[in-house]
Amino acid sequence: MKKVRIVAMRRVEHRDLMARYENPIEHACDVLEGQEWVSIDGRCPEGLCPEAWKSMREFVEALARGEGNFFDGWMRNPHSAMISCNDGFRPVSFFIAAIE
After folding, report:
1. Contact, 96 vs 83, CB < 8 A?
2. Which spans in 4-49 are helix H?
3. Which of 2, 4, 7, 75 is deepest in the core (most CB within 10 A)?
C-alpha cells in the first residue's frame, strides 16, 4: 500500500454564521495551516482530528490502494484530492496525495 500525505492547506472561520447559529464553545479545532500527517496503510495518522478523518477516510484509503481519478478528472494530479472537514463554521481544507 502507498503512504498518503495529508496537508492542512487553509482554515476558514465563518464568523457571521457562528454568531447567528452556533452556541459558544471554548475549544474548537487545533489544526494549523501547513500542518502535515502521513497515513500508513490507509489508517488515520496519530494527531489528526477524528472528525476531519471521517471526511477524508474513503479518499485516503483509495489512494493508499493506488486508486485515484476521483470524479472523472477532478484533480490535476489524479492521485490526490482536496477535502474539507465537516465543520461548517470553521472548515479546514486538506490536500491529500499518494507519496509512494
Report:
1. yes
2. 15-21
3. 4
Q: How confident is the model at residue 34 (pLDDT cuts 50, 70, 90)?
A: very high
* Measured distance CA(78)–CA(36) in Å, rounded: 20
Q: Torsion angle, CA of 39/7/86/10, rounded to 10 degrees?
A: 180
What does the pLDDT look like over 65-100, one tens digit per residue? 999 999 998 999 999 999 999 999 999 999 999 997
Q: Are 38 and 5 in contact (CB under 8 A)?
A: yes
Residue type, 98: A
Burial class (CB in 10 A: 0-12, 13-18, 19+), 52: buried
